[in-house]
Amino acid sequence: MTHAPTDPLAVFARLGRVKLSETSLDDVLSQVAAVARQALPGAADVSITLVRPDGPYTAACTGDLARVLDERQYEHHRGPCLQAAAEHRTISVPDTAGDTRWAGWAPRAAAAGAGSVLSVGLPLLDDISGALNIYGRRPAAFDDRSIALAQSFAGYASVALANAYAYHHTADLARQLQQAMDSRAVIEQAKGIIMAEQRCGPDDAFAVLTQISQNSNRKLREVAATMVAAVQRSPGASR
């Protein structure tokens, strides 16, 4: 069942108020889909397709109709959402029952309950493209005004999603860098312990660590951390 949309600009503004530091990427995607369904006239169900190098998937959806019809496209490698994502343009299917594109996908969409479909390309990052998919229950659910509104919304959504990806990617890189720095620090500490105990140089100490890691089938950082912890627990370590 479709809904009575509220003021689109007021709804679109919600995307600009999302606090990326307090919202996961999945939540941002879900919010974009939910806002689109609320704002776009004729929308019964909305999904977001993302296409990565390893293939397409539905990153967010507001219901089973969108999810099922998206997945049928992925299975057969053709459909409006994939074409919109690949070509970065808007693909309209005014009447699914009579549409002959995509090797019979549209009539199957009609049988599932989608009378019309609108997919708008979402250019995101160099290696990620996407599409905003809007499913209507009746044929001709999206007039020219609805299409223009969907395209306008896609512009807002692209910026919000690109910012979210950039923010969370940067945060992940920062965490990975910190982990790498922590690993390096504990490995250097372990090397120092070995150098003191075996009266050897840093290269030989690292070779000892590597051999222990291989023999015990444990990560180098784990071996180093265990060694450092053992020394810290030993009598006189705090003196």
Describe the structure.
It is a single chain. This protein folds into 2 domains: 164 residues, 2-Layer Sandwich (Beta-Lactamase), CATH 3.30.450.40; 57 residues, Winged helix-like DNA-binding domain superfamily/Winged helix DNA-binding domain (Arc Repressor Mutant, subunit A), CATH 1.10.10.10. Helix content is 57%, strand content 16%. It is built from 8 helices and 5 strands. It has a 5-stranded antiparallel β-sheet, sandwiched between helices. The longest helix has 55 residues. The radius of gyration is 27 Å and the shape is elongated. The mean pLDDT is 82.
- The main sheet orders its strands as 2-1-5-4-3
Q: Averaging pLDDT over every residue, what do you get?
A: 82
Portion of residues within helices: 55-70%
- The fold-level CATH name of the largest domain is Beta-Lactamase
> What's the tally of helices?
8
Q: Enumerate the spans where pLDDT stays under 50 for 5 or more consecutive residues.
A: none
Overall geometry comes to: elongated
Structural class comes to alpha+beta
